[in-house]
Specification:
Elements: H1 2-30, H2 36-57, H3 71-78, H4 82-87, H5 93-98, H6 100-106, H7 110-118, H8 122-135, H9 142-157, H10 159-167, H11 174-203, H12 213-222
Helix pairs in contact: 3-9, 3-11, 8-9, 9-11, 9-12
């Protein structure tokens, strides 16, 4: 009887060991395995996101990216600035009279200015020619269209003093005459300075943005 009892105990212990080992195997099989490959697969995503952040904060501007403007584009960008320069020429008449040296500098272009103003509707034709042929011409690059729009906005600024001269009678003596002469000279210097600024940047292939005027030109080009 004792031998049978010991054999039964031995079989029970073996069955318990097998069942416990089976449970442990099942537990290990149920637990998710730690896979380094899954972590490695996440690394490229992290690197890509870091590249995107660097591009965003690195000063990259897609609207300004690309090759440098060609010589033809630079010349076409500088050409529209002739219109506000010629239209503002009349405001420098007092400055030319008081400072002969300034008149000597601009003397070579006086025939061209006189010929431009002698043609009927020359200013209007040039204005719409720039607007239709350059600004609204999608075949032109954005660089050319931007400078064309900026030049037209400079020319539009001259409308204000023209309207004031038609409404108000210019003074003929006293401090009023002095204010009138100084304001006329200031208009010519203001327009001439920004025209030279725009022409220089156009010929060098860079975006020369006139304060406020450049932002308005950008808005018109996007539209």
């Amino acid at each position: 009887g004792s031998m049978a009892t010991q054999a039964a105990c031995l079989r029970g212990a073996q069955q318990g060991l097998m069942s416990s080992s089976g449970q442990s195997v099942a537990i290990r099989a149920a637990q998710p395995a730690w896979r380094p490959k899954a972590r490695l697969a996440a690394c490229p995503t992290h690197r890509q996101s870091s590249v995107r952040v660097q591009a965003k904060f690195g000063g990259i501007q897609p609207s300004r990216a690309g090759p440098s403007p060609a010589i033809f584009e630079r010349l076409m960008s500088a050409l529209p600035y002739v219109l506000p320069f010629f239209n503002a020429f009349t405001y420098g008449r007092y400055l030319f009279y008081m400072y002969p040296a300034v008149k000597a500098v601009v003397r070579p272009i006086l025939p061209a200015v006189a010929s431009f103003h002698s043609l009927p509707f020359a200013s209007m034709i040039a204005f719409f020619g720039i607007y239709i042929g350059i600004i609204n011409n999608r075949n032109m690059s954005k660089f050319v269209r931007f400078n064309g729009m900026q030049a037209l906005l400079l020319d539009i600024m001259l409308v204000i003093p023209r309207l004031l001269e038609t409404v108000l009678t210019p003074p003929t003596s006293g401090w009023g005459l002095q204010v009138y002469i100084n304001s006329q000279s200031f208009i010519w210097i203001f327009i001439c300075a920004w025209v030279l600024f725009g022409v220089f940047n156009a010929l060098t292939g860079t975006y020369g943005r006139i304060p406020f005027v450049g932002d308005a030109a950008d808005a018109q080009i996007r539209g």
